[in-house]
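Z., the sequence and structure:
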Amino acid sequence: MFFPISDDDRHLLKPAYVSITLLVLNVLVYVVFQLSDPAFTMAYSTVPQEITSGVDLIGTYQLGGAELQHVAGPTPIYLTLLTSMFMHGSWMHLGGNMLYLWIFGDNVEHRFGHVLFLIFYLVSGFAASAVQIGLAPDSIIPNLGASGAISGVMGAYLVLFPRNKVNAIFMVRMISVPAIVVLGGWIALQLFQGYGSLKGVGESGGVAYGAHIGGFVAGVVCGFLAKALLKGEPDTVFRRQYAGDPKTKRLW
């Protein structure tokens, strides 16, 4: 399994403002709201049964041998589909998601443009939640995290920059491999583990594989739409090079 730590960003000429803002918002929500008030996390996470029924669950519910305490959420309860995208279950959960957003978000944002990238990010997150809810519509387990939306970013990256180099740790070595190898391996693992968790209402070990797969597929679709509809390629170092020298080989 590859663990990406960076990619080739030589073609980026300005900061990815939306990606940076999303990263900051995720950190602030976790530090300012979630750590100070544990009830906030329960209130603003997406609970599948709340979405399918339209009813905000409040009170104590039995889940196996444990109790789950639900508190009042926003009105309408469907707002949790948005708020849950900016919350996380732990420092590790937050750190992993933000690393992937930092690595892959800027490239996709520059290809889409700032406004379209923000819309795409949110759509990917909603698609991820839709798949996860579809797998377990009656579940009372809260779902939260930016991983669905970020999976969408990764799916679009795979389509738009398949041969861009990604620096990743493999076993105990750091190697540089094409994005299609890293991201292709990642989604293959999600499919394998997701299939194995289907009997567990679409979740396994606290990981919502359905959301990862749903977000990734949404990203792939949007990536192909971008290739077909966004004809104007953003200005980059590479673009300038092959514009001046027609023999220069394009990287994607």
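The two ends are 24 Å apart (CA to CA). Confidence is low (pLDDT under 50) at residues 248-252.

Let me know what you think.
H.
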